[in-house]
Amino acid sequence: MSQVTVNSGASNVDAVLDAMLSPETIQNPYPSYKVLRDNPPVYGLLDYPPGTVPGVDQPFPAWVFTRYDDVDFILRNPQLFSSEDPMQANSSAPSLMLVNHDQPRHTALRNLAKIAFTPRRIHDNIVDRLRADVTTIIAENLGKQTDFMESVAGVIPAMVMTYLMGLPKQDYKKLVRWANAFMVSSDFTPEERLECNKELFEYFVAKVGERYAAIEAGEEVEDNLMTAFINAESDGDTLTKDEVTLFCITLVVAGAETTTYFLGNLIGVLLEDKTWFDKLKQDRKLIRPFMEECLRRDGPPQRLFRVVLEDCEVGGRQLKKGEWLAFFMAAGNHDESAFPNPEQFIINRDNINRHLTFGRGIHHCLGAPLARVEGETMLNGILDTCSTVEGELSNTRRQSGGLLAYGFSTLPVVLKPSEAGEG
Q: What span, in angstroms and rounded, lies between the C-alpha atoms of 202 and 127?
């Protein structure tokens, strides 16, 4: 992981805050997080929630929280901090399900989502198809220079979304583009982001409408996630057609984008320390702890926003009702008080299950098991097929379009095929 030196000290905090959205900080935010952790929480960050459009939407100034205990407290206390996002609500973006809901509706929605989001649908029903597609994708890229982000990491999660919802497989390329635009990463013009938001919404309005029409006509439909959302019922409660549409959109923009960066970051660790490839190849039981440490140290999700619901104190700061705050899970994951030597990649940490990458409490990410399945399947496919992954971190580039996600924009590698009889 590349490093940028930032001098600590309260006098430097304003400069760090002013530079938070610079390409250099987005590509490597961790030194800036350290400066912010070493000082009292600061006010005034101007950044963009998912779906909003820089240059069109006006960000609200926010308090910034980067210490593990503060981030954990905010996540665990939804009664104090609202997830309803007025900035996104006033933008062109579709609202995100669960992510932007508070109790009691959040509880009802999550109960309905869990009925649809079963282990069978997100694992058993897709795992064979996933393995087959991963095998094909790797085979197509064996032995030649390839941009891993474009040819592998950028394909797998979006393709999985087409399985889950029963969409045409070839549409995965559209999903990738729309997710990149929505999550305020990569380089898009404001006009391109607005158009992508519009296309994304109209696509799922049409697809969900078609599925409802098929069900109402008595046609036999596949028991996939979209169908399950339509049919889900809990204590007499069901999802509206609009809510089903927004659930599908949420899965695509949150699942495809962050998992793409997660898959790339796994390979980044293999380039950083090339002993890992043989260790994993020889002992596949190391894959899970390897992934968890990557999620902690290099987890793609960087931060979320909340609105203060009542006057309270966090991190020694008095917050007022209605104020806006940004809390950085990625900064908490690098807090020395929670994870000693946080910049080092150390598997089997005693407290690795405390990392914040997938959130906490009622907002813990429903898609976390799916991301892990995709990561494990991809790594096993590469280890089964390849003798090594050739590449240098110095030839890679991290995305610099927005602070929401940490991941590669380009990751040139050569997947070297195993010799006959090897592996």
A: 29
Q: Which two tokens stand for residue 113?
A: 């989502």
Q: Which of 364, 375, 367 is nearest to 292 (CA)?
A: 375
How far is the C-alpha of 371 from the C-alpha of 310, rounded, in Å?
35
Which pLDDT band, with edges at 50, 70 and 90, does 2 fall under? very low
Nearby residues of 356 by Cβ (< 8 Å), 6 or more positions away: 68, 71, 72, 75, 329, 330, 332, 333
Give the gyration radius of the chain's Cα atoms: 21
Domain annotation for the chain: domains and CATH numbers: 10-417 (1.10.630.10)
> Per-residue pLDDT for 421 more than 60?
no
Instruction: Express each pLDDT in 111-126 by its tens digit.
Output: 998 998 888 888 888 9
Q: CA 312, CA 82: separation in Å to the nearest integer? A: 13
Here the contacts of 343-348 (C-beta below 8 Å, separation 24 or greater) are 343/1, 343/3, 343/30, 343/297, 345/269, 345/272, 345/273, 345/293, 345/294, 345/297, 346/293, 347/286, 347/289, 347/290, 347/292, 347/293, 348/289
Sign of CA dihedral 292, 343, 64, 401: negative
pTM above 0.85, yes or no: yes
